[in-house]
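User: Predict the structure for this protein chain, please.
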Amino acid sequence: MNQTLKINKCTLDGYFDLIPSKSYTHRCLIVAAFSKCDEVTINNPNKSLDIDETINCLEQMGAKFIYNNNCIKVIPIKSITNTSLELEIKESATTFRLLLPLIIHLYKKVSIKIGSRLIDRGFNGYIDIFKDNNIEYKISDNILNFNSNKGLYQNEFIINSNTSSQYVSGLLLLSLVKEDAFIIKYPSNLVSNDYLKLTLLIFKLNNISIKQDNGLLEINKSTIFNSAYYEIMPDKTINTNFFVYNYFGSNIKYDKSNIKFDLNGSIDCIIDNLKQSNPIIDCSKDIDSCMLYMVLSSFYNGAKFINIENLKIKESNRLESICYVMDNFNIKYELNDTSINIFKSDITKPSIILDSFNDHRICLIEIFLLSLTSGVINDISCLNKSYDNYLTIFKNLKLDCE
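Assistant: Here is the predicted structure, written as structure tokens:
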């Protein structure tokens, strides 16, 4: 059932607990499920529908998860004797792309029921690798079937396209089950390279050395993940959505005592950049936040955003979605094949009920803009995909909504 949210023009005020990183939680859950420890504790995990999908898949493979206050106890997979596996992944591209190399290597037959949008987003970064490893696949009625005799048996994997860093991370996590040493080659213009850094951080926490050169990763034979504890850090990109309010009269604060970076400082740098004359923003560097920056740039001098192509294959076609948002708030822009120019604009109240496009980041941007104009959003249930407690946070921060 669609859930609408009516927002009145207002400012926000108060403290809130920073939202844990969904991306890091995915990775820690997967590593913990294949750990050599008897039990692994993940503290302060992100709780969301996307994370539930990763947990459900790992449970199908034999891992166990015990919830205890604000942590998850993981009992790792002891052994895998089955040769086939059936999974369902509705919408989480992270779950799909991080687990796919693992499960194809471990099982001869894999059947995954996936959502229609996930089919559209695809797994292009792996297609050539699967062909090189004689892995057959076909899609029929939203069921993706894989057949593999030897798994990912080669020791060199090449990602040719300018694509998501999730594919590199998925291949890195293959080291959890692949006994041989291997190398990964990938393009230097990888999209969202910061997410690859999260994966490499887990290797570092386990004292696993990865040789890294420009576009090259070398993974040693028989890597052992033996850390029994992971602390989930705050999600920089999601929490940024809250601190932008402070530039428009709000007073949102958070407890800095256990945080290793200054979120306020991060958004300060972004705003300072947008205040420059004719700034150029590379969307491939921050594919998940660049839409927010587009909207913010309209309050200053405007900006040019380049490398926008990968916005089309996110939770929604985010290029179309953000243009819809800007159209309805009277934000002026010029769209080209590979870039979009945003112009300084005076936003106005939308004349329609806004569509969230079932995309949590679009929905968060719309909530922010409506706090400045008032209005209504249809179907905010998409927020639960990245965190299950958004509305409580907004209401505690005195967002005037119903």
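The mean pLDDT is 92.
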